[in-house]
Each structure stands twice: as structure tokens, then as C-alpha cells.
Design goal:
Blueprint lengths: L1 E3 H6 L1 H9 L4 E5 L2 E6 L30 H7 L2
Length: about 80
Amino acid sequence: MQISLQEAATQLTHLAHLAAKGESIIIVADGLPNLELTIAPSKTVKRKAGTLKHAITIIDKDWDKPSDEINAEFYK
């Protein structure tokens, strides 16, 4: 679909809905194709499980065991 710049200015909402449905919209200024109205590409990146697998090094293998010292501080 080709539309003049003046018409596009008055029908922008309608044109945006058409573009979202996949229709190609060319905006013409001074008789020449000037702009193309399209859907912006998605910026989301697919995450992959396990990417940070080796990013953390646990030094103390008993880090999650209860500590009498810490418990004593909590229950004073």
C-alpha cells in the first residue's frame, strides 16, 4: 500500500494496525517513496539454561549447614 505523507499523518493509528498485521506500507513524499512503515524487530534474546554454570565457585562445601555462631546472634 502506498500513501501520501499528508494522508499518513491523519491515519497513523490505522496504518500502525495494518503494519502490525504484516501489510507493507510505503509513505510517499513529493511523488517518491520516502518511508516504509514496518514492525520493529523484537529485542528479546532467548535465554539458554546453564550459561552461567561455571561462573560461581563454592569454596566452602559446608556453606549451607547451620552455624551455632550465627544462630546465637539471631536468638540473643
